[in-house]
Amino acid sequence: MPPTHGLSLRRYGASHGSHAHGHFQVLVGLGGQLDLEVEGRGRHITAGEGWVIAPGDRHDFESSEGAQCLVLDTSDLLWSRAVGRTPMTQRTLSLASYLALCLGQPDAPKLALHHGPALLLEAWGPLPASASRRRAIDWAALSLWAQARWQRPLTVADMAAVVCLSPSQFAQRCRDECGVGAMQWLRQQRLVHARQLRGHGMSVAEVARRTGYRSPSALTAAMRREEAASPQPSPATSGP
């Protein structure tokens, strides 16, 4: 099982091929240069530099001389606001170096690692002024709205109407703020709801019925796909 705080210290070398996963992955360089390719676009990550890989984005990495990074695997939607933005280098490097030190201790400081992800997000820097002027979308409320309607096919236009945007505006906002396409976001919410119901002891058949899956096997297959897309990290060895 991955650690509950989602932080790990990893070393990168030769490429192992591209892949994708169902959560945000945050990388901050600590040493060396990591050559990262995300959805066909390349970038270099050196000490203090970082990048956020959105759920579903295919990516690959390589480091000819070896690179070390602090990595955060998280499903926190607040990280969507950092997608496509680089961090404030010195601030982020100082924090990442301290968290890496904590991870390397046999008796790691639990408080530091528990609050590390939130501090890392704060250190990433403020949103651009243009983004802060837009009317906020209450994603939690929209998720609850969708939960009450799993029995019927929902579209991007349906969700856009709820938040008083055009379909194209809503689709762009979803990508900007959640890091995924609108329909992928909807699928994620349905699967999260299904897992919550299963966690309360409800049968697979009843969960499938309540969340609109066509059969229990369809629900089980969706859960397995999500698990397969979320690699279990091994400190100092795993790729992004």
From TrEMBL:
PROSITE patterns referenced in this protein's UniProt entry, alphabetically: HTH_ARAC_FAMILY_2 (PS01124)
Highest taxon, organism lineage: Bacteria
PANTHER family according to UniProt: HTH-TYPE TRANSCRIPTIONAL ACTIVATOR RHAS-RELATED, TRANSCRIPTIONAL ACTIVATOR FEAR
This protein's UniProt keywords: DNA-binding, Transcription, Transcription regulation
Region Disordered: start-end pairs: 218-240
Sequence ranges assigned to domain HTH araC/xylS-type in this UniProt record: 140-237
Protein name as annotated: AraC family transcriptional regulator
Pfam families associated with the record: AraC_binding, HTH_18
